[in-house]
Write a sequence for this structure.
């Protein structure tokens, strides 16, 4: 297939996400109102230019090894377009999501790379509001989840809102988007001096769990969906986890101490993804209580109530 036409320029905006929400390990995700933005312009001469702005600009590789560039390449090749074959690309990354923080930065980057590839391959298919059709969004999510190794973050970044994902018989990613109760919102609390690589946090999990924990986890994850969609009064009960958080306590002790404090005060605290960010699911009327509690904490915390993103991935044409 011929490469993209010089002059074509696309922008992708992708929300970060909080995964697990307590018991929904590797399955439940929530899109946060915090965004990374990526722009790609097609150049007439072969070559790649990567520009970095915001988070990670001083330490990420400004070349083909950059996560988004690598995923853009894989996405183009999967769509039958040779990498830099007769054309060049300028990729600009504007990152606001903290990395290795449990806010779905790597998932957002992988989704963005694949979405840019989809847009460059079929720019005529880009129409408002999100720019890509449902089947292309599903394809991007499937590709990104396969790379990431779990679909919870990628589904939330692609579709927005509350997502529940599972694998079909062939291992493909399936996602539903239950309607979040309108009063539910999120506070994210990040200990700024900490960072946890998702790979390291996953390595801390053993291969087996006792039957009693498995039963309890299944119960709580079912309750989680009920609390998030119908009865936020049950969020504290519904965010109890028996599968991953205690097993990872030594990986993110500061975060677990904060989760303990929140839960002792009656708030639905959980570790966000693989940490170290802490998520507190709450209702609009209790946000100020959570913020007041966090103000008393000694270490430096970045505390935000970013709101829930309901749009998901947006791909737009900037120039043709
Ligand atoms: N959006 C991104 N763009 C480029 N590189 C990224 C991005 N997100 C993550 N990375 C790289 O991947 C590494 C691992 O991130 P990971 O632990 O998966 O983060 P997160 O929990 O935020 O998803 C980071 O340290 C960084 O080098
Ligand atoms: N279910 C995964 C989620 C990882 O999320 P991240 O935002 O930390 O990448 C896990 O808990 O390992």
């Amino acid at each position: 297939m011929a490469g993209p036409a010089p002059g074509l320029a696309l922008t992708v905006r992708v929300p970060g996400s909080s995964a697990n929400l307590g018991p929904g390990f590797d399955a439940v995700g929530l899109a946060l109102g915090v965004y990374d933005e990526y722009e790609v312009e097609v150049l007439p001469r072969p070559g790649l230019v990567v520009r970095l702005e915001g988070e990670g600009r001083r330490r990420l590789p400004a070349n083909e090894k950059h996560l988004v560039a690598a995923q853009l390449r894989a996405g183009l090749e999967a769509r039958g377009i040779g990498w830099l074959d007769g054309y060049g690309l300028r990729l600009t990354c504007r990152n606001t999501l903290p990395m290795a923080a449990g806010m779905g930065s790597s998932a957002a980057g992988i989704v963005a790379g694949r979405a840019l590839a989809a847009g460059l391959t079929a720019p005529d298919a880009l129409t408002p509001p999100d720019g890509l059709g449902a089947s292309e969004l599903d394809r991007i999510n499937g590709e990104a989840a396969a790379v990431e190794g779990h679909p919870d973050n990628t589904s939330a970044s692609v579709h927005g809102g509350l997502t529940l994902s599972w694998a079909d018989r062939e291992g493909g990613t399936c996602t539903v988007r239950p309607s979040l109760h309108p009063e539910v919102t999120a506070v994210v609390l990040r200990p700024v001096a900490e960072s946890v690589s998702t790979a390291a946090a996953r390595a801390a999990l053993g291969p087996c769990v006792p039957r009693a924990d498995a039963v309890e986890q299944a119960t709580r994850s079912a309750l989680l969906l009920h609390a998030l969609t119908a009865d936020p009064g049950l969020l504290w009960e519904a965010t109890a986890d028996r599968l991953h958080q205690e097993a990872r306590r030594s990986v993110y002790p500061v975060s677990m101490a904060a989760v303990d404090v929140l839960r002792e005060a009656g708030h639905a605290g959980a570790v966000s993804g693989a940490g170290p960010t802490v998520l507190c699911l709450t209702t609009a009327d209790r946000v100020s209580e959570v913020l007041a509690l966090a103000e008393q904490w000694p270490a430096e915390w970045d505390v935000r109530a970013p709101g829930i993103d309901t749009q998901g991935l947006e791909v737009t044409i900037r120039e043709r």
